[in-house]
Specification:
By secondary structure, this protein is of the alpha/beta class. It has four helices and six strands. Helix 1 packs parallel to helix 2 (68-85) and helix 2 (68-85) packs across helix 3. The chain is globular. Residues 1-12 have low confidence and may be disordered.
């Protein structure tokens, strides 16, 4: 559905996204699901507001810390969608938890799919993530 700024917004279980002129924003809530992420990336790539190569801001601050198995699944999903989405940057914003698990899992996902056309990095601040996404 489009609003006055031609921004698009869709939702799948636990995940939602919006697209504006310069950015895709994904918001995750609750436990992560690889199938949901796969479906969401299909929806994003098919969205008329999406242009290949748009930067992606993935806000996971409301999500449960992912498992190692989930990290491997996400890396595979990112490789699968790389040709439709990339080359692009994907910033993952995680909460500051007491053990740093979410940040570490995001770094692991980045390392696991490193050969794809999607460059990803974890951040604990939306501002820092946006700065990286829009830097040359």
């Amino acid at each position: 559905m489009a609003n006055a700024h031609d921004s698009r917004s869709e939702r799948t279980t636990g995940l939602s996204y919006t697209i504006d002129e310069t950015l895709v924003r994904i918001v995750a809530v609750g436990p992560p699901g690889a199938r949901e992420l796969d479906a969401l990336l299909h929806a994003i790539a098919a969205d008329p507001g999406y242009r290949r190569g748009m930067p992606i801001l993935h806000d996971q601050r409301g999500a449960t810390t992912p498992t190692t198995d989930y990290a491997h699944q996400v890396a595979e999903i990112m490789r699968k969608h790389a040709s439709r989405l990339g080359p692009c940057r994907w910033a993952v914003v995680v909460g500051i938890d007491d053990r740093g698990l979410a940040y570490g899992m995001s770094r692991m996902i980045s390392a696991l799919h490193d050969a794809s056309a999607i460059a990803s990095r974890p951040f604990t601040s939306v501002e820092e993530a946006l700065e990286w996404l829009h830097s040359p």
